[in-house]
Amino acid sequence: MTETALLEFRSVNTHYGAVHILKDVDLAIYPGEMVCLLGGNASGKSTTLKTLLGMVTPTSGEVLLDGEVVNDKPTSYRVINGVTMVPENRRLFKRLTVKENLELGAYLRNDTEGIEEDLENIYELFPRVKERLSQKAGTLSGGEQQMVAIGRALMSRPRVLLMDEPSMGLAPALVQQNFELIQQIHEEGMAIFMVEQNANMALSIADRGWVLQTGRVVLDDTAEALLANPELRSSYLGES
Amino acid sequence: MMTTNLTSKKPFELDWKRTLFWGSVCALSQVFICLVGLPSELNRRILIESTLSLGYLFILWIPLVFGYVVSKMVELEGVENPKPGAADLLSGALTGLLGSLGLVLLMLGIDNLDMRDPLINWNQKLFRLLTFENSISFGSLVWIPVGVGLGTIGASLHQMSGQIRKMSAYAMFGLFSFAVLEDVIDDLSEGFRLEWLSDMIYAKKGGMTVTSAIVLAIVLALLPLITRGKFKKTVDRYRSDAKPENQRRNSVVLFSTVAVLVIVLPWFLGGIINELLANVGLFLLLALGLNIVVGLAGLLDLGYVAFFAVGGYTTAVLTSPNSPWFSPETHFGISLLVVVVMATLAGLLIGAPVIRMRGDYLAIVTLGFGEIIRLLFLSDWLKPYLGGSQGITNVPAIDLGPWEVRGADPRSVFYMVLVFCVFAIYISWRLQGSRLGRAWMAIREDESVAEVMGINTVNSKLMAFVVGAVLAAFSGAVLAAKVGSVFPKSFEILVSIIILVVVIVGGMGSITGVMVGSLVLIGILGGPRQPGLLQEFQNFKLLIYGALLVFMMLKRPEGLVPTARRTRELHQEEYLQDAWLGDDESEDREEVGEQL
User: Fold this and answer.
1) Where are the alpha helices (DSSP H) in B265-358?
2) How many Cβ atoms from other residues are within 10 Å of residue A238's Cβ?
3) Chain B hits for A136, Cβ within 8 Å
4) Structure pTM?
5) Going by fewer Cβ within 10 Å, which terminus of chain A is more open, N or C?
6) CA distance B575 to B140
7) Which residue in chain B has the smallest CA separation from A51?
8) B55: three-class secondary structure by DSSP
9) 3-class SS at A165?
10) What is the domain partition of chain A in residue ranges?
């Protein structure tokens, strides 16, 4: 592909103290794409997200946003420029109202009218959220919390959504619904980078995928190829 | 299991286990209160002439409360049989009886054993108080019926109709307030030239006369009958008034009333009460600052007194002619500017290294920093500059042209503090709704996610520290001018803790709550070194503070005057508690939500 990647890793290494977490990781997310990152426990998935968002600084290598090296730029810079995360387990501000949660998503924006407009869009997308605006986020059901978490992320007008384990902690019936939701947002042109345990489900909607093992990218292919990969099937899809 | 037992409950079948348990707790509490020395110490304070002293009241309220508790518990457990009956009365009476037996044992113990070594109050003074300067048998003959009676009355509070319960509550609390607030009422009536009124209510030697107590009790009991909840309705209407312009008008009316009261009232009050109000103001200023740090930003700062000290010392050094090293003797106004600068620096200096810590760690480190600052002021190293344990004396009064604010004139100090408090309240109020306030709340809720939202958590947290520091330093500056001197021992760790208790008891994050908290705690009980309205409690202040804190945490964690936010949370959680665990019940919950 010739267009500039939205987000890119060039041989990124990260350390927590002496522990080497990510080892020469190369990634690229292009506009409007849906990609997923698979990997077992302690394979470096969360560190990848944190490095993309600037909460962890790589010890070597480059993180690029629209082709620009952003290694030293703070999280706020990346949020302003269209990178947002939906954290694992949703992590809403439980004692704040739903409305306040949504407004905090637009914390870095100053265009009052644009914020109002986006709020309306979110109410349209999630009519149930609108009914709960003045309620505490912590009192919502799991599914509603997921909606608010996604809505909160959308409030910053992102171009790419980083999703950390979107189906974790959701009732089985909701997992499917949740993936449909993600797909719907994706179809409106949003790039999505998903870290997921539920490899089968994630690969079935994604364009491409990587497999991370102890900090190293071991597989990098299209979603169909990964789904068909016998090695992956045995280790992640629970088939022998 | 309990419920099935209770459904087949016969009128006089008792829940023995529960009654025995609460009876023993009642007895232990009474013995504890006696041994702590509350009754002996407070016996001097007469509430009702030649009938009741505050000391006796402290023993008497226990069986009443436990009688109420024991019958309430039975009622709560037996959901299927909530009808109160004779069994509840009986368990109340038994609880009171057990409590009195505890006192009898205590009397026997004091008479026969000598345990004065560990227990200072195991003495003849307490013995004379318990036996009414008579014999043990006489004392027992009095205490047992009294205990049984009070236990029964406590239990019967459940059986009465709401109206009667309300009336008795009005009478009891009203009478108690009149008796305890004797000094204020005396003072007020003098200010309004109504001495005859207080002469009528109170006896010459202190305490109310028996007649006036009875008359007042009847009047107070009739009060709810006359008002018939009109007052509550007005408050409700004021609160639920949906129209924004009406709400605005209501707020303006409320605000001006309070403002006029606060400005005019001190002219009618004497020196003691004004001194008290000045202290309340000083601590309110501190509490408002800490409320920003703890209540809004969620940073548990236990070394808050450090900023108080910085304000005090800066003012003392700059204005006092006795400052040992550098003594420019500037005007208070100029020193105040330096105070702001110094407090900001102190906030940044203490804040910067500790700001990365979270929760418990932050609390421990700030605790240490608070002590370090105090020890620095006390140290020989800084003695040539700040006077060491001698402190800095002779801090001049604040010269405001036609007026002078000095400690000998507490009214002037009160007005001075009032100006600062109004400023602090305005700042807190504006910050709450601001972008920064929003960022603080997000950090308080979940710091990592706040960072993901793009909030600069380090800067926001430092801002909270600095704003809190400046408000505390203002308080320290006024304190220095009020007292006329600063000593390291005025800035001990207890100050930090008491301010924190004020914030927690008042309601974290709520400005009104903090105001009520400081009025109640500092005004009535007193600050770490400042006596409150109930000066007799001086020695028991910390005990009461602690008990109050435990009670509030258990029964009313949102504080006396919670923010609307907290109340809403607690109400919603009651019916939604289980609902959001699984989504399958979401349909049911929706119905519940609609009904409410």
Assistant:
1) 271-290, 305-319, 332-354
2) 9
3) 568-569, 572-573
4) 0.84
5) C
6) 49
7) B452
8) helix
9) coil
10) 34-44+82-236
Beta bridge partners of A213: A216
Question: Residue type for B154, please?
Answer: G
CATH hierarchy code of domain A34-44+82-236 = 3.40.50.300
CA-CA-CA-CA torsion for B172, B177, B180, B185, nearest 10 degrees?
Answer: -140
- Tell me the residues of B at the A interface, defined by beta carbons under 8 Å apart: 435, 438-439, 441-442, 445-446, 448-456, 565-566, 568-569, 572-573, 576, 579-580, 582-584, 586, 589
Query: DSSP of A38-94, one letter per residue?
Result: EE-TTSSHHHHHHHHHTSS--SEEEEEETTEE-TT--HHHHHHTTEEEE-TT----T
Give the distance from residue B301's alpha carbon to the nearest chain A alpha carbon, in angstroms. 21
pLDDT tens track, chain B, 596 positions:
444 444 444 555 677 888 899 999 999 999 999 998 888 888 888 888 777 888 888 889 999 989 888 877 554 554 445 556 777 888 889 999 999 999 999 999 988 888 888 888 888 888 888 888 888 889 999 999 999 999 998 888 877 777 888 888 888 888 888 888 887 788 778 777 777 877 878 877 777 888 888 888 888 888 877 776 677 777 777 666 666 777 778 778 888 888 898 888 888 888 888 898 999 999 999 999 999 999 999 999 999 999 999 999 999 999 999 888 888 889 999 999 999 999 999 999 999 988 888 878 999 999 999 999 999 999 999 998 898 889 999 999 888 888 888 888 889 999 999 999 999 999 999 998 899 999 999 999 999 899 999 999 999 999 999 999 999 999 999 999 999 999 999 999 999 999 999 999 998 888 999 999 999 899 888 888 888 887 778 888 888 888 888 988 888 888 887 776 555 555 444 434 334 333 333 333 333 333 33
Tell me whether residues B583 and A143 touch, CB distance under 8 A: yes
* Residue A11 amino acid letter: S
Taking a contact as any Cβ pair under 8 Å apart, which residues of chain A between 55 and 84 contact chain B?
Answer: 55, 74-76, 79-80, 84
Residues B482, B486: Cα–Cα separation, whole Å:
10
A174 closest CB neighbour out of B565, B569, B583? B583
Beta carbons of A105 and B453 less than 8 Å apart:
yes
Name the one residue in this structure whose structure tokens are 């996604």: A150
Residues 141-170 of chain A whose Cβ lies under 8 A from any Cβ of chain B: 141-145, 152, 156, 170
In this structure, what token pair is assigned to residue B314?
Answer: 């800066």
CA distance A60 to B196: 86
How many other CB atoms are found less than 10 A from the CB of residue B110? 25
What long-range pairs does B24-27 form, CB within 8 A, spacing at least 24? B24/B98, B25/B66, B26/B62, B26/B63, B26/B66, B26/B95, B26/B96, B26/B98, B26/B99, B26/B102, B26/B151, B27/B98, B27/B99, B27/B100, B27/B101, B27/B102, B27/B103, B27/B105
- Round to whole Å and give the CA distance between B306 and A197: 49
**Which H helix or E strand runs over A209?**
strand A208-213
B506 CB neighbour count, 10 Å cutoff: 29
Reference B463, options B286, B293, B284; nearest CA is B293
